[in-house]
Amino acid sequence: MVKTKDILGFLNIIAPFDIAEGWDNSGLQAGNLIWEVKKIMIGLDVSLPLMNAAEKWNSDLVLTHHPLMISPEKSIDFNRMPGKAIEIAARKKISIISAHTNLDKAQDGLNDYFASKIGIKTTGAFLVDPSSSMQKDEMTGIGRIGYLESPIMLKHFVHQIKEKLDLKHLRVTGNMDMPVTTVAVCTGSGGSLIDEFLISGADLYITGDIKYHEARRVEEYSKGLVDVGHFGSEHMAVDLLADKLDHAIQMAGLNIQIKKFKKEKDPFIIV
């Protein structure tokens, strides 16, 4: 009988929880380590639509990229999130697990997956910050840096990114005719790494949630910046988690159903 703790074990091999950022809340969010698991639903966020779908499908476990909670809640109200998700989890015996910054930072994790989708050959982590429990690993850390097989003008690369990520809109900073060879990426919100990008030697930085003054700094240095949005850089985590967990389960000779929750959309509407 497979239990919640066994799924945590598989995920710890895929993306070790001890490399998660200190502020993060990866791991078990709600549930019980000894509950049996036969069906797993995977999504980006622990949302009410996801929990309702998991309940309808009789899921035993929900796996997401973004945690149910990062900051502590002062009260748990079952009539609103995140309390509603906890209420459903308790009533239907659905464990909730999140793999957040550990998946971002892990080798062959989300940043590597994102980079490969847009044609970047990664050479290492953009920012290596090993924890005390791991040796320094150039392929484990925040973001990735790499190169394109051949130089391309920013305006052409932008169109390729939109096509490969199936995005209708991007925010771009820089000379659209500038040649791009070396690229840094950081899935999610990467504005705090602008200084690291400016001294990295990379021509272009691809991330999400960029602020006005961060874009101005990139412009002043005659570099390029592409903001694909937080959702645009991370919704693919659902496919990544499903593929890696399904492979681990099959290699272990287990029979567990996995279903992707694909009804999530970017909360921002451009009008």
Fill in the keyword field for this structure:
6-stranded mixed beta sheet; 2 domains; 5-stranded mixed beta sheet; single chain; Udp-n-acetylmuramoylalanyl-d-glutamate--2,6- Diaminopimelate Ligase, Chain: A, domain 1; 271 residues; 33% helix; alpha/beta
CATH topology of the largest domain: Udp-n-acetylmuramoylalanyl-d-glutamate--2,6- Diaminopimelate Ligase, Chain: A, domain 1
Calculate the terminal CA-CA distance, rounded to whole Å: 50 Å
Low-confidence stretches: none
Helix share bin: 25-40%
CATH architectural label of the largest domain: 3-Layer(aba) Sandwich
Class derived from helix and strand content: alpha/beta
Total number of helices = 10
Shape annotation: elongated
CATH class of the largest domain: Alpha Beta
CATH superfamily (homologous) name of the largest domain: NIF3 (NGG1p interacting factor 3)-like
Pfam families: DUF34_NIF3
Keywords: Metal-binding
GO molecular function: metal ion binding
Protein name: GTP cyclohydrolase 1 type 2 homolog
